[in-house]
Structure formats: structure tokens, C-alpha cells
Amino acid sequence: MLEGFHGTKTVTTKSSQWDIVTEFDKKVEKILTQGFYKAYPSHKFIGEETAAGDKSEPILTDAPTWIVDPIDGTTNFVHGFHLTCISIGLAINKEMVVGVIYNPILDEMYTASKGQGAKLNGIPIHTSKVTQLSQAMLSYEIGFARNPNIRSLIMKRVEALVSIAQGFRALGSAAITMCYVAAGSLDAYQMNGLQCWDVAAGALIISEAGGVVMNTDGSPFDVMARKLVCAGTRKLADEIVEIIKQADTL
């Protein structure tokens, strides 16, 4: 991945002009796939590029399953912007039990195991204690508004959230953003449309850092649901859910 970040890349598109992939996405996923199958031959594997090649929606079963995004933040990666990473999660009985997110550009590795807390380069991390959106630094990926089918919905939510939040950021990588929530650098993150490989590892890392992860409607988090709210505190997450519900009725 470092080789590709600093060197020449071949960029192709998948579902749209902004859904891009490089040869390094495919190389990283191949290395990880082969490694997991060799070490854990009975385990299943869900990878972004494998799913794109199959042109099918991923299915999560109760079997031990590795959920991988070989390069999260591919657009950042292509443009030489340092917020890009490898994201790996392990689910057993549809519950996340291991999460690893590594940014080789900054040499930052976020890790979590169920019940064991979350760490950054081996040092424990914790979410912020902010409970009100008016005091929070919120992240939201405004770039999803390029899709005309959901543009109106996104802009209504952005207007509602940004009018209250103390700060507003869009980082271009769901996994990195979730790590920053886990470490307390960001207070909350909301996004619909993310795939399981975008959020699997990050959801566990946030939970183990003391934060809250749920579906956008406030229901318990489902890694396959593609609707995410995460925050350092339950009170802040609940406030964001209510604001979204109100914005969606406008």
C-alpha cells in the first residue's frame, strides 16, 4: 500500500465515476484473502473487491467471517491524501469480535478485541465525553450527495446537523473517521450507504473505546444495515438520531 501511495497507480471505475479502484486495492485484498484462508481454512471472507467482482450483495452468516476493506478511502489514496487505511474485522455469530484498522502512511494501528478495550499503537484509547451536539465535532461524508437519488435527503440532514454542531468535518474514509471517534478526536459520525467492510472493524473499536454505535433509526447496530450513527456518548448519539428523524420529514 505504501508503494502505491507514493508511486504511480492505475485507476478504474466500478459503479460510478467516483467509485474507483486501483490495482493496489486488489493486491492488498488478495494478500489478505490468501493469508486468512491459509491460517483459517474453515472461515468465510467478505472483501470489497471480491464483492465488486461478483456483483453480488455480501451475506453474513453465523460462521466466523473476516470482513475486509483493502484500502478504505481509495480516493484519498489516489490523490496522495494521507487519510487512507486497511480495515479488517472478524465476526462470529454475526457479532464483531476483532477489529484492526491500519494507516500505513501515518503508521497508526487501531485495534480492539471483544471485552478487551481499544488501542492505538498499543496504547488504550477512549471516546470523548461530549453529550450535546452544540459542543461536538461531527463528521459526515457530504460527497455522497453526488448521487442524485439521495442528494435531497443528505442535504436536509447536513443542514440540520451543521446548524447545531460546533464543528463539521468530512475525512473521506469511514474507517479512519470511526477511529477518530474512538480516540476522542471526533465526537460523532453519521452516514447511510456504507458497506459492511467500511464499518465492521470501526464499530468494534468505538464500542471497546467506550462509545456507542447504532443504526440511524436508533435501533441496535447491524453491520449489514448500511445506516450508521456512532458517538462518544449515548446521549449525543440519541440527539443525532432525533435530529435526523426530524430532518427526514421535511
Automatic annotation (TrEMBL):
Q: Where are the transmembrane segments?
A: none
Matches recorded under PROSITE patterns: IMP_1, IMP_2
**Cofactor(s) for this UniProt protein:** Mg(2+)
Annotated SUPFAM superfamilies: Carbohydrate phosphatase
Q: Which UniProt keywords apply?
A: Hydrolase, Magnesium, Metal-binding
Q: In which pathway does it act?
A: Polyol metabolism; myo-inositol biosynthesis; myo-inositol from D-glucose 6-phosphate: step 2/2
| GO BP: any one term | signal transduction
A GO molecular function term, named singly, is: inositol monophosphate 1-phosphatase activity
Per the UniProt entry, the Enzyme Commission number(s) are 3.1.3.25
Which Pfam family, an example, fits this chain?
Inositol_P
**Binding residues annotated for Mg(2+), in chain numbering:** 48, 69, 71-72, 198
- Coiled coil (UniProt feature): none
Family that this chain belongs to: Belongs to the inositol monophosphatase superfamily.
Q: What is this protein called?
A: Inositol-1-monophosphatase
